Amino acid sequence: MKTSYVFFLTFISTCMFLSCSQVPIKTVPHEETKVSDSTKKKDKSSTAANDAGSEKLPSQNTTPVQLTKEELEKYAYEIGLDPRKELTEEEKQQVEKRKRVRTLERALDSQKERLQYSKVLPWLKDDSEKLDYLTIPSIEGRQAWVNRNKIWSRAKDLKGYVEVMESQDIAVGMPADYVRKSWGEPSNIEASGNPIYKNERWKYLKQVSTPQGYRQEKRLVYFEGGRVVGWETE
Known about the structure:
Blueprint: H1 2-21, H2 31-50, H3 58-62, H4 69-78, H5 89-107, H6 111-120, H7 127-134, H8 139-148, H9 159-166, H10 176-183, E1 188-191, E2 200-210, E3 213-224, E4 227-233
Antiparallel strand pairs: 1-2, 2-3, 3-4
Helix pairs in contact: 4-5, 5-7, 9-10
């Protein structure tokens, strides 16, 4: 009887062990795995947004630009317009575009970004190209845009300015170092905004010959991105 009881307990224990061993084990994802998957999704999203520098920051070009009276005057004068006169719609768009450019320039938040832009800036044709460049959200993307548009090749196309420089004159688009070679060192240089972008006004004081004798002439030369955009004589 005792032997039968021991056998019965042993049989029950064996059945319970076999039954438990058949229960499938559910694997619970580790917390680190969840974080890793989430990070991968963010990385993929970031890569897609920066792919080849072709993606723009949509809000930069689609959001209407609000201009105060002071901003309208400031940016209109910058691009050679007289804000005291009624501006056409096209001229207003040019002023708004200039404000976008200035806003995006100030938004470059690292020295590396600002230095990269300052090197490209002299060879960008207009505000539209500056916006194309500045609305790309990564340094790598901007460099890809520069390479794709062969911006650096423009630095070699300066033959016309050599002739102007040799005749001791200046021209729109002339680099600052050519102006120095033509007219010498200015008596004063004023910078607008971050000096690294070379938006400057140079003042020259020249002695010029007149029928009444020599008189002092003041010449003001305006630069954007280190290249001449205009000048005036007083």
